[in-house]
Prior knowledge:
This protein is α+β, with helices and mostly antiparallel strands.
Amino acid sequence: MRKIHSFFGIGIVGERGDRYQAYYNVQSARAIANVIIPHFDRYPLITQKRADYLLFKQAVNFLIQGQARSSFEGIREIICLKGSMNKGLSDTLKIHFPDILPFPRPVVGEQGIQDPHWLTGFVDGEGFFYVKSLKNKKYSSGFNVTMVFSISQHSRDEALLIKFIDYLGCGRIERASTRPEIVNFTVSKFSDIKERLYLFSKVVPYMG
């Protein structure tokens, strides 16, 4: 987080709860408009999160132009945009603005992975590595140990995760039984981890 803070030169870094979580926060609309937005315009998101970004960008423009501060209609415009972002409006906002119609959500078409550095950055934020052990009498130790690499996303980005299979030449798509809205790109075959993921990491180092 501090490296991100240093890179942009704005905002603050803080800690949440039991101090095991850190966050980077920029609240100044003008700082966001002058620094954050130009960065994401230059290096576009390629997941469905790009739609949230485009709506967020419109909301920032409303604030910069003063429309959201100078009139009730301006505030309503911001709330309409929020209604289509992420999880939508909170219950409190729905009570106070019952007639709000969410702004049309931008359509984000399927895009391929153009840069291996993008994939490394994506894994930095969304991927994880773990070791899974299951009891199995076929092994002398009594356990079957498997190394797993996985990336989880909302099902709306399943098409992008499928592209990882072609890009890396390995892996599969799985759905969590307890959370059907979540899909996982998973690699657990040792030869694929050794011959494909490890070689990829040598070319484009993981920064986590």
